[in-house]
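Worked example

This section walks through a single chain of length 228. The input is the sequence exactly as stored; nothing has been trimmed or padded.
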Amino acid sequence: MHSYESQMQWTWGAAVAISSVLARDLQHKPRARLLLSGGSTPAPVYAALSKAPLDWDRVDIALVDERWLLPDDPDSNSRLVRESLLQNNATKARFENITRPGRSIEEAVNTANLHAQAPPGVVVLGMGEDGHTASLFPRMQGLDAALESRAAYVSADATGCPGAGKFLRRISLTPAGLAPAHTRLLLIRGESKRKLLDRVLDGNDPHEYPARIAFLTPGATLDIHWCP
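Given that input, the structure is written out below as tokens.
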């Protein structure tokens, strides 16, 4: 657990943590692979990370999840990553869109799983007010199948899940896709998220709070970065 006194400290603390791991990976491997979540919370961290002095042309960036929207849609995670991270030094990074014009959702999932054959090094997760992470929502239909899937990505139907808003069709990372990463980070802000985190950490049922996959999935230790 990494707690910060201000959002500024949190922003740069998380950005430095991510860049340090990427730099270490690039010392030992030809390429580094980073999976990022969407939402408004991590955007400042991505903007700070974009200024890191890394060999960005050797970094592959992909998404933890995506709404069933085209990459240029203002509400897509792709656009958020491009506008916050793929700036400054990070313009040379290789970014993988999940969706594209003319691609069905099944084709998009297949493409994401093909890319996932290169295992991620770092996965950056978020957590919604309902305890969801990626596009896995509490008690959504198909959640069992997603949690048990051997594929890194699955399509998700969030019908009936208030936390999904109007974006019901999605593509999401699964525990199987998270497991290979050697570094997991959870970025959260605010007192309400801290109280929710306490409830999430106090149980082991991912159906109640799918964010529990962040620490229940065998593999790396979860690093949590929080500020008020």
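What to look for: Residues 7-28 form the longest helix (22 residues).
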